[in-house]
Design goal:
Arc Repressor Mutant, subunit A, Trna Endonuclease, Chain: A, domain 1, three-stranded antiparallel sheet, 13 helices, 8 strands, hydrolase, endonuclease, nuclease, Mrr-like_N_dom, WH-like_DNA-bd_sf
């Protein structure tokens, strides 16, 4: 069916624990999955960070919020049971328990106040269809999107020669060639028979990658790719990279898939993504580290 939001999972968690004694996290997860008919494939879906499973993460936060409201408790690692407060609340609870509902409990408010002194509960409710990790990922994606847009503007406003330099610099950062050994070169300004850059894949120059860079607004069509492919043949080259600040037309993409030469197409969106990933034209602003309890540390011998 679907992966529930963490708020949607809170009521099933409470219901399951009301009918069972102390239960392991895995048992709780399985019950929530059965309620929402979550498939095995959906249960394996990862968070964008690739560090945790999305379904597991949402159920974990449903448990955490119920625990903060003291509707459930845990006396040993990964095991939970319903409290008297939880038993009293469940019969009259709404069909879908939300963070705003939990904010009515004094225990929940105290815990929230201790970690978010200036936070508004209503503000939390607006965001809380996502778990904290998902909120961080959403915010991070927005920052990346804005950064990509700014990068693309700068690329489009740069001179053709400087744009070609950026492209070669990126490829070097990605591990192709070595700038210090002069293994990457730019051809004469504004292009050389359809080739803007040449990168040696190895120090002996046994294999070359030819680069074409177009600082365009309009889509790059098949004709331009054909010219580049012809330039590669003229150099007896097998590999090429065609990079543009715009995008490639469908017929250009289809053409590349049919020809013998290996040509990689990188459009504006992919270009800025790679620049951010490899630190070209960007610098680190802030670094956040999320920590968790080291349960092994608290195991007494």
């Amino acid at each position: 069916m679907a992966i529930p939001q963490f708020q949607e999972a809170m009521k099933p968690v409470l219901e399951f624990l009301s009918r069972n004694k102390e239960s392991h996290t895995s048992e709780i997860r399985n019950y929530v999955a059965s309620v929402f008919k979550t498939t095995n494939e959906e249960m394996e879906e990862m968070l964008p960070s690739k560090r945790a499973k999305l379904f597991y993460n949402r159920v974990a936060w449903a448990i955490q919020y119920l625990k903060m409201a003291e509707l459930i408790e845990s006396e040993k690692r990964s095991y939970y049971k319903i409290t008297n407060a939880g038993k009293n609340y469940l019969p009259n609870s709404p069909s879908n328990i939300t963070v705003q509902d939990l904010s009515k409990f004094e225990a929940f408010k105290l815990k929230k106040d201790s970690t978010e002194k200036s936070e508004n509960i209503q503000e939390i409710q607006t965001l809380s269809s996502q778990t904290p990790e998902e909120m961080i990922q959403t915010g991070y994606n927005i920052i990346l999107s804005d950064l990509s847009s700014e990068l693309l503007k700068l690329l489009k406003s740069s001179s053709p020669y400087f744009f070609e330099f950026i492209v070669v610099d990126l490829l070097i950062k990605m591990g192709y060639g070595d700038k210090n050994d002069a293994n990457a070169i730019l051809t004469k300004k504004s292009g050389d028979e359809g080739v803007d850059g040449i990168i040696k894949e190895d120090k002996l120059g046994l294999e070359f990658i030819y680069v074409q860079a177009k600082r365009w607004e309009n889509p790059v069509g098949r004709q331009e790719i054909q010219k580049f492919a012809g330039a590669l043949q003229g150099q007896r080259a097998k590999k090429g990279v065609f990079i543009t600040t715009s995008r490639f037309s469908n017929d250009a993409v289809e053409y590349v898939n049919k020809i013998e030469s290996r040509i990689i197409l990188i459009d504006g969106n992919e270009l800025t993504k790679l620049m951010i990933e490899y630190g070209v034209g960007v610098s680190e602003k802030e670094n956040f580290i999320i920590k968790k309890i080291d349960t092994d540390y608290f195991v007494e011998e």
